[in-house]
Amino acid sequence: MERLDVKKDGQFCYAIRFEKDFSYLAEEIAALGFMGHKLCIVTDSNVAPLYLELVKSALSEKFDQIFEFVIPAGEQNKTLDNVKKLYEHLILSHFDRKDCLIALGGGVIGDMTGYAAATYLRGIDFVQVPTTLLSQVDSSIGGKTGVDFDSYKNMVGAFHMPRLVYMNLSVLNSLSAEQFSCGMGEILKHGLIKNREYFAWCMENADKIQERDYETLLYMIKESCKVKRDVVEKDPTEKGDRALLNFGHTLGHAVEKLKNFEMLHGQCVAVGCVAAMKLSAMRGNISDEDVAYVEECFESFGLPIRTEGITAEEILQISKSDKKMEAGKIKFVLLHEIGNAYVDKTVSDAELVSASEYLLK
């Protein structure tokens, strides 16, 4: 059994468990004290045909009150309207504070289910069962939940820690190459902000990663989870170092909105990371050779490093509506060097425009 423990205020909060299947899911949830209580599996129209019945079957070994709620797949459905529909489903099914939600899916499902759990009856428990590489190394860990508001990314949300994160790595075999590469965007980001050696390891093992070799993926995902866990433990509500995890996200989120979510989140993060690398080079922190090296690494995993069809001025304006604004200043994450990130509140509009122009074809 492979697992990582996550702490909050120095005390155990929840475990991240890494497995090859769903065999131990019921056992883990039962151990949390939910025997005799209701479970509701929240998933989407892409994941449901693949894993809903499999998870229900696994849970039925110990639970006899299992409900389900399926939303249409896609970022455009991460809305308050769908949260309201989930509330109604829970109310009509008589869910109380001792019952539990299970988020079965990618980041959209995890974020939305977590937000519903944080706000239904002023807070009930939930379990993350992430089914994409992106959600396994990023959104399922750390307790940030939320929904989009009028296409503004995660503008409504809450901090609400899961009781368990259960990762079945075998589900990664059903991901398309595009979806898999999106997860690599966050993984490479972890190396860029905190661990240069880990970034280099990813490149040295690129072939095994692309082949989805189980042991290689297990090591990679666990190392990425360690990076995020360590940051989250020091700063659970994003008042300091946790903001480093937003590397590539400020401009990435702007691109995501301006492209009407036609580009996947991991792809937008990759483009945003390139812009942040360029801005770091403009500041004299890193070299143009470092920027070119990282671009080559992103491209080797099928990630875009440029986009088109939008303008630098549009990116600037959307960035100023980002939730990461503080006292009218954008908290922008830059690099001192690869593996060493910092938060900067002095980035000017002109610098943002220049960095944005660099990522536009």
Report on the structure:
- The protein is globular and about 60 Å long.
- The chain has a 7-stranded mixed beta sheet, sandwiched between helices. Strands 7-8 form a two-stranded antiparallel ribbon.
- Helices cover 47% and strands 20% of the residues.
- A hairpin with a 2-residue loop joins β10 (325-326) and β11 (329-330).
- α5 runs parallel beside α6 (177-194), α6 packs across α9 and α6 (177-194) runs parallel beside α11.
- With 361 residues, it is of the alpha/beta class.
- The mean pLDDT is 94.
Short description:
With 361 residues, the protein is of the alpha/beta class. It is built from 14 helices and 13 strands.
Question: Which descriptors apply to this entry?
Answer:
361 residues; alpha/beta; seven-stranded mixed β-sheet; 14 helices; 13 strands; 47% helix; globular
